[in-house]
Structure formats: structure tokens, C-alpha cells
């Protein structure tokens, strides 16, 4: 690419994947430009917009977005101008393919540090650039996960599956393993690029959990930075999230197969270094329809209990059938029941008892039922109480791990 040859080498790269984000991406680009000027004025920096074929002029918005009067915002002018590249990506449509293009450009420019941020963010500030990049540039870390305050019903896939499972498996308390905004070293970007995953679900929603897990499991230095609030376009947890759930959980289960020798040796969990001043922030409420969620769970029990029997012990299926009979006031999906379901599904996927996609998509009503129960339990709870409930769930997943290891190794023994 001529543009890359003209740039030659850069020190920092900020990637922004996008698809039809013309109404939000200008704010993200401005925040990144100011962040680079304020915190890294002497570094040669590039902003890369990797776009999935937007029809609303997203790439043109990126090209046209400039800070007209930087001196009115900052006390000093930056020395190096911020360069911009807006390019369509190729391959399977999805966020992962957009990231692959960003990794390729990072490698071509031989950058020292990178970050990626979502294009629908409304809460990003210039300080995010510092918090995602500085641990790499000055702290020697390879991977910086985000730490946010989110509304208690935003990020429910993270809170109910991805965080508890990742923490129990790999022993690192990275609170937002699929947060969407990450910092990483140039050498880790090159490592990602070498992996043969770009025709799998990693190319779609699976990219975030894959990046986090790959960094931990391969011994890269990991940390997290507090970024404040994450305010974006949230999704109703009761809406149709089956595609995202399938891709994220499917990727997490695939990674369990890849890294079984790593996670099977890990016991307990430990905090990771955390940067940034933590403070309380106002959050936009996320509307949820609990009655609709419970109805979806009940329908799932009626239609899918037969399929679930391929993955779950009969006692667990009976427990689900009993829950299906409960009214809203008695509806309670326990931590123990939920963590066992997740572990049993991981084992069933590994043993290929049922076609993987069918089995994982059948988890959706279970996830929705679990989320409905969580919403009912925490309706009156504040942020700190909700966080303690999630902590309790994580401990239950950790207590479930010996069962998972035992069943996993039992299967390996049968294969030998």
C-alpha cells in the first residue's frame, strides 16, 4: 500500500473497527487525536479505521474529522502530526477481520504499541489513549484490558459467562475480557497475526476473548486500566443475542481445547496490575423485559430439553423443568446450576456429542433464564452489591473447576 510506504515506520497505532458508525465515529476519532497530541506529542502516531463496507459514509467521516484548533484544547502543540488511514478490510465479515487488518498495518509500520477502541463509544475521552498505551510503552506490558463501570444489566454475557469462566480457567482476574477496547504491544500484534484462526469465529465476535486468552495462555504480561464509564449502544439482554453468544462461547470453548495443558494446571485466581484512578460515574440505564426473558426460557425448556440431555446430567435437566414451572416471584436460577451447565456444555462440545452450533445456540434460553434470575435478584441492588454477586458467581465457577478437570482428563484417558 502506497500510504504505508509513505509513512514508513510509526511508534503508536490506534485502530478503530467500524460498520455503519457515521453517527458516532467522529467523536471517537477526535478523542483519539487529542489523546495522542496530549500524551504522546513526540511519537509518530497513526489512526487506522478498518471498515466492514459501511453504506453510511463512515470512512469519509473519519477522513474529514479534524481538530481545527488544538491549542484551544491543549496547552502545547504536538510535534508530530497524527496520520490517518481509512481502509476497507477483507475476509469474513466481522470485527475479527477488521482487527486482522489493524494487526497487519501495525506489523508493516513496526509500531511499538497499539490500541483498538470501539466506534460506537460515546464515553471515550483522550485519557483512554494514555491508559491503554502507557502501560505498554512505559510499563513493559504486552496486553492492557479495559476496566469500566457499566450499568448492572449491560455486558451480561461478560458477567455471567466470559468473566467467571476465563478467571476460573486461567487464574487472572481480568474483569472485562471482551470489553472491546484494548492496548497491546507491537510484538503481541505480530504474534496474533501468525495464528491460523482467521477463517473461524475469531473473525467475528470471537476476537475479543481470543485476544485476551491468547495473551494470558502464552505468558504475555497482562494488566488492566480503569477507563471510567462504558457508554455505547447497549443491547437488551433479552433480545436475540444467539449469534453473539454462539460465537463468543464457541471461541472460549475452542480455546479450552487449545490451552488445556495450561488451564488444567491453574488453581484459584489472582488480581492483575490495575492502572487508572477509579471513581464513581453516572451510567445510562439499560431497559430489560424480565417477563419476556422468562417466557423465552420456558419455551426453551419445552422445545430443547431433549437436546440438553445430550450435554447435561438428568438431574440438571429435571431441575430446569422444575424451574420452568415457577412463577416470577419464585424464579431463581442458582450459581451452582448455571456454572455446572456451562462446564457440561464445554465438555459436550469437546466430545462432539451434538453438532456444535446446534448445541451452543440451544444455550441461549438458558443464558436468558439465568440473566432474568439475576435481574430479579438485583433489582434493588447498587453497583457494589452487584459486583459482589458477580464475585460470588466467580467463586462458584472456581469451585466447579475440579469437576471440569476430572471429566476432561477422563475423556483424554479414554482416547489413549
Characteristics:
416 residues, alpha/beta, eight-stranded mixed beta sheet, 50% helix, 11% strand, globular
Description:
With 416 residues, this protein is of the alpha/beta class. The chain is 50% helix and 11% strand. The chain has an eight-stranded mixed β-sheet. The longest helix is centred in the C-terminal third of the chain and has 33 residues, at 383-415. The termini are far apart. The mean pLDDT is 91.
Helix run count:
16
Counted beta strands: 8
The general outline is globular
Distance between the termini: 50 Å
Please mark out the parts with pLDDT under 50 across 5 or more consecutive residues, or reply none. Answer: none
The helix content, as a percent range, equals 40-55%
Could you report the average pLDDT, rounded to the nearest whole number? 91
Record the SSE blueprint.
Layout: H1 2-7, E1 12-18, H2 25-39, E2 45-51, H3 58-64, E3 82-88, H4 95-109, E4 113-116, H5 126-137, E5 143-149, H6 156-170, E6 182-185, H7 186-194, H8 207-217, E7 222-229, H9 242-258, H10 260-263, E8 274-275, H11 290-308, H12 314-324, H13 335-350, H14 356-361, H15 364-377, H16 383-415
Helix pairs in contact: 2-5, 4-7, 6-9, 6-16, 8-9, 11-12, 11-15, 13-16
